[in-house]
């Protein structure tokens, strides 16, 4: 398993920019001083920086946590601004799976254009559905603008600092 000590022998990390650079020559393309990693699409249009270290691929945000704290994230390293390629230390926070899901973008299959709002055919109304681990809001509206306001308020209330409105 990769340790903080071994990581620091191979890579430097700039907590202000979030970039990793090779300290040693690794391959023909991974030369000393060059920026490490490539941008890879994980799922649903989310991009992350991936770095190959000692034959294994790691997400740069996981390596940033290891580099700064000495341990891999206990659950997830969440990108505060929602940009998976911004691995600046000030943009990363530890989150559990549920908190990370709360901070997700609007699903690609969303038809209303508003996160947590969808058209409910049977009642011919807009449906707002927002949940956390213990509570939920599930309401119906004739007016899309009202549904949007209720969804935003519910996200703020139920998701707190992990609320993402767009």
Order of helices and strands: HEEEEEHEEHEEEH
Q: Unreliable segments (pLDDT under 50, ≥5 consecutive)?
A: none
Q: Span between N and C termini?
A: 37 Å
What is the CA-atom radius of gyration, in angstroms? 20 Å
Secondary structure: number of strands: 10
Number of domain units: 2
Shape: elongated
The neighbouring-strand order within the major sheet is 3-4-5
Major sheet characteristics = 3 strands, antiparallel
- CATH domain class of the largest domain: Alpha Beta
Q: Class by helix and strand content?
A: alpha+beta
Q: Quote the CATH topology of the largest domain.
A: Homing Intron 3 (I-Ppo) Encoded Endonuclease, Chain A
Q: Can you walk through the features of this model?
A:
It is a single chain. This protein is an alpha+beta fold. It has four helices and ten strands, in the order αβββββαββαβββα. The strands form four sheets. The protein has a three-stranded antiparallel β-sheet. It has a three-stranded antiparallel β-sheet with strand order 8-9-10, covered by helices on one side. Helix 1 crosses helix 2 (about 60-70). The chain is elongated.
What is the gist of this entry?
This protein is an alpha+beta fold and 166 residues long. It has helices at residues 4-10, 60-69, 97-102, 144-159; strands spanning 11-14, 19-22, 38-43, 46-53, 56-59, 76-79, 92-95, 117-120, 125-131, 136-141.
């Amino acid at each position: 398993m990769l340790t903080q000590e071994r990581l620091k022998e191979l890579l430097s990390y700039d907590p202000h920019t979030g970039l990793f650079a090779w300290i040693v020559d690794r391959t023909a393309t991974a030369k000393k001083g060059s920026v490490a990693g490539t941008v890879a699409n994980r799922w649903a249009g989310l991009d992350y920086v991936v770095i190959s270290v000692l034959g294994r691929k790691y997400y740069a945000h996981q390596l940033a946590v290891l580099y700064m704290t000495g341990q891999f994230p206990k659950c997830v390293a969440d990108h505060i601004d929602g940009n998976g390629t911004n691995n600046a230390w000030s943009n990363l926070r530890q989150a559990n799976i549920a908190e990370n899901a709360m901070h997700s973008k609007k699903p690609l299959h969303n038809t209303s254009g508003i996160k947590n709002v969808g058209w409910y055919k049977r009642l011919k109304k807009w449906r707002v559905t927002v949940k956390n681990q213990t509570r939920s809001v599930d309401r119906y509206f004739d007016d899309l603008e009202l549904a949007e306001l209720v969804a935003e308020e519910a996200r703020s209330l139920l998701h707190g600092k992990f609320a993402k409105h767009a």
